[in-house]
Amino acid sequence: PPELSILNNCSPSQLEGLCSFLQLSTCPEPFLVRFCSWLLPLTPDLSYTSAAVLAEQLFLRRVLSLTQPPSRHLMAALTSFCSKYSHPFCRVLVAAVLQEPGEGAEQTKLMCELVEECLEPHSVQLVLSQVLEVPLSEKLLPVLQAVLGRQEVLPPELLDLLVLTLCQQAPAFSTSLNYAKLVTAVLTAYQSQVS
User: Fold this and answer.
1) How far apart are CA 142 and CA 112, in angstroms?
2) H-type helices in 40-137, by residue range?
3) Which of 89, 106, 117, 180 could be 66's S-S partner, Cβ–Cβ 3.0 to 4.6 Å?
4) 104-116: b or e for each residue (b if 16 or more CB lie within 10 Å)?
5) Coil, strand, or helix at residue 157?
6) Could you tell me which of 8, 10, 81 has the C-alpha nearest to residue 39?
7) Between residues 2 and 57, which one has the greater pLDDT?
C-alpha cells in the first residue's frame, strides 16, 4: 500500500510510536505475514535503523516468548523479513536471544533454522561474531554447529576467534557431545587453516 512510504519518513521514535499505535507487536500472525510481504517491494529500502526498530516491534516479544516451535505464519514472516533485512534483524533478535538467561530451547532451534535456511552469508558471520561475544553455553553449541554447516568462508580473524574460544572453553565442556561434534566440524571444515 502507498501509505507504507511513511515508514521511510519516520524517525526511530516516531516509528516506535506508529508500531505501538498499530499494535504490531501483538497483531495476529497472518497479518504479520502480509505486513512483511508489503515491506519487500518498498522503495527506497528501509534504513538500517528503521528496519531494526521494525524487527524489534514485530518479532522480539514473539520470539522471546516461544515455548513451542513457531507457527508456520510466524516462520513465514521471519523468513520474509530476513530475506531483505537480515543484518538489522540479527543485531536486534539474535543479540536478545543470546542475552536471554535459561535454556531457551525453542529460541535456539529457531536461530539454527534461520542460520541454515534464511540468512545471507554476511549475516551468518554476524551471528557467529555475536555468539562468540558471550560466554559459550550448551544452548549455543547447536547455533555454532549450524553456522559451520553453512560452510561459509570465514574471515581469518573470525576463524581465529572461534578456534581460540573453543580452546579456552574446552575444560567446561569436557563431557559434552555437542562440543566434541563442534570441534570435529571445525577441524574438518578448516583443517588447512587450523594448526
Assistant:
1) 7
2) 48-55, 61-64, 72-89, 95-99, 105-117, 121-132
3) 106
4) bebbbbbbbbbbe
5) helix
6) 81
7) 57
pLDDT at residue number 97? 85
C-alpha to C-alpha distance for 187 and 156, rounded to whole angstroms? 15
| First-to-final CA distance of the chain | 55
Tally of residues, the chain: 195
Lowest-pLDDT range of 10-24, 53-67, 94-108, 128-142: 94-108
- Per-residue confidence (pLDDT) for residue 153, from 0 to 100: 85
Higher pLDDT, 73 or 97: 73
pTM of the model: 0.84
Number of H helices, E strands in the chain: 11, 0
Listed by start position, the domains of the chain span 2-119
Give the model confidence (pLDDT) of 113-127 as tens digits.
Answer: 999 988 888 899 999
Query: What's the CATH number for 2-119?
Result: 1.25.40.480
Cβ-proximal residues to 110 (8 Å cutoff; 6+ apart), any chain:
63, 66, 69, 70, 78, 97
Are residues 53 and 8 in contact, defined by beta-carbon separation less than 8 angstroms? Answer: no
- The grid coordinates listed for 10 are 519516520
